[in-house]
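The protein record now logged underneath.
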Amino acid sequence: MPKAIRIHQPGGPEVLRWEDVEIGDPGPDQVRIRHGAVGLNYIDVYHRTGLYPLPSLPWTLGMEGAGRIEAVGEGVTEFKVGDRVAYASPPVGAYAEVRLMPADRVVALPDAIDDQTAAAMMLQGMTAQYLLRRTYRVQAGDTILLHAAAGGVGLIASQWARHLGAIVIGTVGSDEKAELARAHGCHHVIVYSRENFTERVREITNGQGVAAVYDSVGQATFMGSLDCLRRLGMMVSFGNASGPVQAFDPGILAAKGSLFLTRPSLMAYTAERADLAASASELFEVVLKGAVKIEVRQTYPLAETAQAHRDLEARKTTGSTVLLP
């Protein structure tokens, strides 16, 4: 019987259990995937803690995986048994050796992209795609600020933004992460533990501010990020690693230069099959031509996911992390 990581109640990493699960045959419009690799993402922590509640408990965590189709349900015409596929989409349940997925939520993998690379890039890479190409469409010559530049999304987005011709300012928590961010496209790196990032951004931009801030940190950086923006700049708040942003008067946006604010999610940007396919295709394109390099910087056995969560929350990880069934 296949195994999976499940939770029976919200909580810390200790609630993650390695258990036998019953999978069964795919239903109509479903495929059954045997995973070669599973992605680790901060949204998994939000599901584990209950910040983003799951439909019911017990439940298998995980939003991203790659592997091979071993069965197809009635009505599935785009895929066949043996096809290599990947996904980064609900329903939650990737922390498993085998799982069922709606066929319209998976995409075919190019032969040149292996399972570990795919599991390291789908959610973070498609997040970078919608942030840079759709939420605020980065143009050559733009200056942008990217928080957590040495994280999984950060390393991909900084390379991609530089490829687009942007000037990339990244924030990180240590000198080691600063080196990593520079090596992956950041023109300027701010170590926020000893530098005031708002002041440094103003210095770097000669007081003009940046066109867009991409902020996955949340509470700790939100107000300072607003002060980094140029007039009519775009504040993109797409994560809460330091906690949810507290309520504020939207009049602040007017006072600071008629700023724009959005709180996007990958799931909204890929809700339609055509958008999902286009996002994955653009990601595959920049990876296959070498403009964006995907590095699996940590791997853990799937059975040891609790330790992976501890390390992720302690900010001991950099870039992409993959769980191996």
Notes: The first helix runs from residue 42 to 49. The chain has ten helices and 16 strands. Residues 140-263 form a domain with the Rossmann fold fold (CATH 3.40.50.720).
